[in-house]
Amino acid sequence: PRPRSHTVTTTSSSFTANLSASSSTLAYDREFLRTLPGLLMVTEIVLGLLVWTLIAGTEYFLYPAFGWVMFVAVFYWVLTIFFLIIYMTMTYTRIPQVPWTTVGLCFNGSAFVLYLIAAIVDASSVTKELDSHNYNSWAASSFFAFVVTSCYAGNTYFSFISWRSRTLQ
């Protein structure tokens, strides 16, 4: 048997070079958490977690109204964490094609409206006759749902101000 000669050729594309260079320069905005919108986002995450864990610890699945509250609370909790990561890592500066002020306004506006509906549904569904064992958890979740709603209302206001200043330029 005769020995074979193997030749391996490697090439580097400009796409992979740009990708590796750009991913190593991920920014981190420490000052965002010191702004009022940043503080509101952290409050939304912490209190939103309280809303859905207080309900999740009960037999909420027996009552469809609490299922709706759970959906809204978990859905916006996950999205708020997602947006906090985007703002903290300044990803919005790396994707200029996305109209971030409009996205933020739509997100916060929809969160405010749906959380308001969920908080009203939550509060109107809490009765001692329904299930006295879970009464305190449901009442607390209702209170925190209204607090989170007010936080989303504040962030909607700040998003509107930001969106308005961008559209006027």
Automatic annotation (TrEMBL):
Keyword vocabulary terms for this entry: Membrane, Transmembrane, Transmembrane helix
Superkingdom: Eukaryota
Membrane-spanning parts: 36-55, 61-86, 98-118, 138-160
Pfam families per record: MARVEL (PF01284)
Membrane topology category: Multi-pass membrane protein
A biological process term (GO) from this entry: myelination
GO cellular component labels: membrane
Keyword Transmembrane helix belongs to the record: yes
Keyword Hydrolase among record annotations: no
Primary subcellular site in the record, as a coarse category: membrane
A GO molecular-function annotation: structural constituent of myelin sheath
Coiled coil spans: none
Record localization: Membrane
Span of domain MARVEL: 32-164
Designated name of the protein: CKLF-like MARVEL transmembrane domain-containing protein 8
Organism of derivation: Dryobates pubescens
Taxonomic path: Eukaryota, Metazoa, Chordata, Craniata, Vertebrata
